[in-house]
Design a protein that fits this description.
Blueprint: H1 3-33, H2 39-57, H3 63-69, H4 85-111
């Protein structure tokens, strides 16, 4: 398989992982809003925690981004994922703000 084929596979896998983790983050927000801090909430929070640790281990980059950089010289924010460029550029900021709301809401729910 050539470099563009490998990059397409990386983009596809990266997009699927992004979609799953985004769904989990929005589920966590829903769970906090509706006061449903059940076992699914904790599993979701653990999954997002693993993603955060992975990002920290790779210098705030996804490991798939690191692989994709070897195959592309593009400087675009979405060179490694099938997302609009604006969303790829601000994805970490958007998710971080939502997670902050989740954590504050979680603390509020647990302390009340």
């Amino acid at each position: 398989m050539n470099a563009s084929g490998k990059l397409a596979w990386i983009k596809a896998v990266h997009t699927v992982i992004w979609a799953v983790l985004s769904a989990v983050i929005f589920f966590l927000l829903y769970a906090v809003i509706t006061d449903r801090l059940d076992h699914w909430f904790w599993w979701g929070l653990g999954l997002v925690g693993i993603e955060v640790l992975t990002l920290l281990a790779f210098g705030m980059s996804c490991p798939l981004t690191v692989l994709a950089r070897r195959l592309s010289g593009s400087q675009r924010a979405n060179f490694d994922i099938f997302l609009p460029e604006w969303l790829a550029r601000y994805n970490k900021t958007i998710c971080s703000v939502i997670l902050l709301v989740v954590l504050v809401g979680m603390a509020w729910r647990l302390l009340k």
